[in-house]
Design brief:
39% helix, alpha+beta, 266 residues, 7 strands, single chain
Length: 266
């Protein structure tokens, strides 16, 4: 009996879609309504256009991005990385390059999302265009999952801003695997009166949550300029996620009753 494909592998039905966007729902035995429509495949359409019409520039930019995050420290050998991580690298890095990165076009550097939404870009429906436009404006943030609706949605609390109101997010497949209390990096988009996750997701082990929050908060405070803060926060979220998967397991930070790390210099 053959094993099921990974979430980000092509669906064996031959549809050309990723397994998670096609028959994973049926195989999981969860009734989550009809499969995603063209709106939710807006990012895939954008990436397909980039790989078709700007392939050399796109591949070069993606390789540079992966080198920056995967090899800025000493990662585990590639053959030791899990299939799940390899698949999620594709999703997270391509969305990052689309939303935050840039590519070389005719000798000049252009922000990828601006180029895709330009007059020479792919044909999007109005809803798809709005989805891609929100990748340009909605920042990657850290959230703590504080509520679960299995097969339908999540409740998220901003991990960096305790005053921010919680967000109820429609999310079918992610809500099947994420546990209550998990720290995640995500981009929340809003369309037709509801919140949805953009697709990329960065999950962290509970033992390292406090350490990740501290690192991302430090990045946020490094610059007073909003655009720089957004970029620094997003990069640190990505960096911590890669570290989670590629570095040897770290001991959790242990604090005393006063919140001070044990073993720290007094």
């Amino acid at each position: 009996m053959s094993s099921k494909p990974g979430r980000n592998e092509p669906c064996p039905c031959g549809s050309g879609m990723k397994y998670k966007h096609c028959h994973l729902r049926d195989d999981a035995g969860v009734d989550t309504g009809p499969p995603p429509d063209a709106l939710q495949r807006a990012v895939e359409r954008a990436i397909a256009w980039l790989t078709g019409y700007r392939r050399k520039a796109f591949v070069a930019a993606l390789d540079e991005l992966i080198d920056e995050f995967m090899f800025d420290s000493t990662p585990l050998p590639a053959h030791d990385l899990s299939d799940d991580f390899a698949g999620q690298v594709q999703v997270n890095f391509t969305e990052w390059l689309l939303a935050e990165g840039s590519i070389q076009v005719k000798g000049s550097e252009q922000r990828t999302v601006d180029h895709v939404l330009g007059p020479d870009g792919p044909a999007f429906s109005p809803e798809q265009r709005l989805w891609i436009e929100q990748l340009r404006t909605q920042a990657l943030r850290l959230y703590t999952v504080t509520g679960m609706r299995r097969g339908s949605g999540l409740t998220l609390r901003d991990a960096l801003d305790s005053a921010a109101a919680p967000l109820d997010v429609d999310e079918d497949l992610g809500s099947l695997s994420i546990e209550d209390g998990t720290l995640i990096g995500a981009r929340v988009l809003r369309l037709a009166g509801r919140n949805e996750l953009s697709g990329a997701m960065y999950a962290y082990a509970a033992l390292h949550a406090a350490e990740v929050i501290d690192a991302v908060r430090a990045a946020e405070q490094f610059s007073a300029e909003p655009g720089n803060r957004r970029m620094l926060v997003g990069r640190e979220i990505m960096r911590q996620w890669v570290r989670e998967w590629t570095q040897p397991r770290r001991l959790p930070r242990i604090e005393d009753a006063g919140g001070n790390p044990l073993g720290a210099a007094r």
